[in-house]
Amino acid sequence: MTQSRSGIGLVAVTAAGRTAADELAHAWPDARVYGGTAREALAAAVAECVGVVCFLATGATVRLLADEPHTAGTLADKGRGPGVVCVDEARRWAVALVGGHGGGANKLAERVAATLGATAVVTTASDASATTALDSFGADIGLRVEPGSPLAAVGVAILSGEPVTLHADAVWPLPPLPPTVLVAGACDRDRDRQHERAVGPAIFVTDRLAVTSRLVPPAGPTVVYRPPSLVVGVGASRGAPAGEILDLVDAALADAGLSPLAVRHLATIDAKRDEAGIVAAAHARGWPLVIHPAATLAAVDVPHPSEVVRAVVGTASVAEAASLLDADGHAPAGGELVVPKRASAHATVAVARHRPRGRLAIIGLGPGERDLLTPRAARELARASVIVGLDQYVDAVADLIRPGARVLASGLGSEEARAGMAVDAARAGHAVALLGSGDAGVYAMGSPALDQADDSFDVVGVPGVTAALSAAALLGAPLGHDHMMISLSDLHTPWEVIERRVRAAAQADLVVAFYNPRSRTRTWQLPRALDLLAAHRPPSTPVGIVTDAFRSGQRVTVTTLSELTDPDTADTGLDLVGMTTTVVVGSTWTRVVAGRVVTPRGYRWS
User: How many angstroms separate the CA atoms of 219 and 165, rounded?
Assistant: First the structure.
């Protein structure tokens, strides 16, 4: 795809097709309808857009693509054109026709289906079998496939269940591959070694040019991926030509046996941010150019400092220091200078290898029903190669976990240990998903995990529908104004602290959502909390009791504060409360309208 393409093109010729296209154009800011004949509209859309939605028959679309010289390349080379999706006249199906992965047609089909209420039809073998596609394998972490790699041959072997060996010279946060992909080399440090020698097709993840020089020799078709492991530091005198800089970089990489495809970025000092040769060299190779202040570079310990350089630019090293820093100006642990500084007439370069960063996705699964689990949560589950969670949560989403992912499940009461397992796996470099119900950051696994974390890996938070929100949705709008969430579990928080917070909420006249309100052994805490609130709000204050929200056995009860605090009626209401219950107590403003609990916004609407 050319860089000039942008947006989604919509092609329709019938009245029904034009109506559907107009709906998409209204819903999607990046979509536009193409007019003219179907042939003219499709040719223009393919030339200008990153994705095309045709409200035409699949056969007609294929013929139009094949007949036009400007669009035939979309069929001939799946890497050249945009993804094309066809939608039938009745809007029942959104068919990913061309460019499923490389062109984004599979995702576009799902986007169309979500907007029009259709069903996405994806026939790409890897998607149909819930297997990671090799043409997009690791793309989100910057893996680049070596040109000429036999993706099709190795992909067919994986889909056929043949043994394929994965070799990597570092642990990268790779997506899962099926169990038939046998792990060998550095990438299995945290697993029992499954295979010491390649037995057929192989996958290599390495920045080394000669994959056989240190790793296991392949015994079949081999796909090589280049990870973004190398940073090239560059210094140059005024007017240094781009060609000279690139020749020096190429020689440094070649002499060290390293692939240019593994270069993450070029880096230099801020005084050279506008140096034409450096800027042009980075642009010529498509490498981002990262700029560091002299003071940041001066703080980096390097093997070959120069006082002459320090006197001129304020740091004893440019190339070596810049190569050892990441894009944020930090010197991460595990960085290794693989090519010390070397100079030409007008330039200096150095190359460092950076340790991969693991990835921890903290995922909220929502209240229970599958349609309340966010699409992003589903994508992160499919992306992770290590899944950590409470056994019942893991079982609930087992169908979303890709084959080959390692599952670390445990029972109730092991929260801290589960958090530790997730952090350890991410710290080792893996792609990890840590599961929690509702929102994982609200009284769930996010807090204990991040409390043990450091800055050696990336963290991705995926929000979920927390218990207070699911209960509120069933009750009406009790959280329409200021509110507070309080857990009544005193297993880890002293009751004195909890009671002080309840008193503060009562005095502030806040709606309160109580989490963990009652269990078999904790029966007095909720009545005590209700008494504290009753001292500051009327007996008629609405109280919602929601158990198993959006799950089998869901129960919703609306009562009053007096009913739950009166000795003659309290037991009946409190018997409805358990560990899967959320209790929502209104403020003095909360009322029941047509059976629904509502806390007014309190604004004067003009």
Answer: 10
Give the residue among 263, 269, 254, 270 at the shortest CA–CA distance from 287: 263
Q: Considering only residues 571 and 515, tell me which one the structure prediction assigns the higher pLDDT.
A: 515
DSSP track, 474-493: HHEETTSS-EEEEE---SSS
CA dist 270 to 293, 324, 396, Å? Answer: 5, 16, 52
Question: What residue type is assigned to position 577 of the chain?
Answer: V
Of the candidates 333, 339, 375, 338, the residue with the CA atom closest to the CA atom of residue 356? 333
Give the span between the Cα atoms of 61 and 97, in whole angstroms.
9
Q: Check whether 587 has a pLDDT greater than 80.
A: yes
Characterize 441-457 residue by residue with b for buried, 16 or more Cβ atoms within 10 angstroms of its Cβ, and e for exposed: bbbbbbbbbbeebeebb
Write the pLDDT tens digit of every residue in 277-318.
999 999 999 999 999 999 999 999 999 999 999 999 999 999
* Token reading at 444: 């769930």
CA dist., res. 519 & res. 412, Å (int): 14
**The pairing of beta strand 83-87 with beta strand 31-34:** unpaired
Answer whether 281's CB lies under 8 Å from 266's CB: yes
Q: Cα–Cα distance between 603 and 76 in angstroms, integer?
A: 61
Q: What is the DSSP letter of 402?
A: P
The pLDDT tens digits of the residues spanning 105-155 come to 888 998 999 899 888 888 875 565 556 778 788 989 999 999 988 988 998
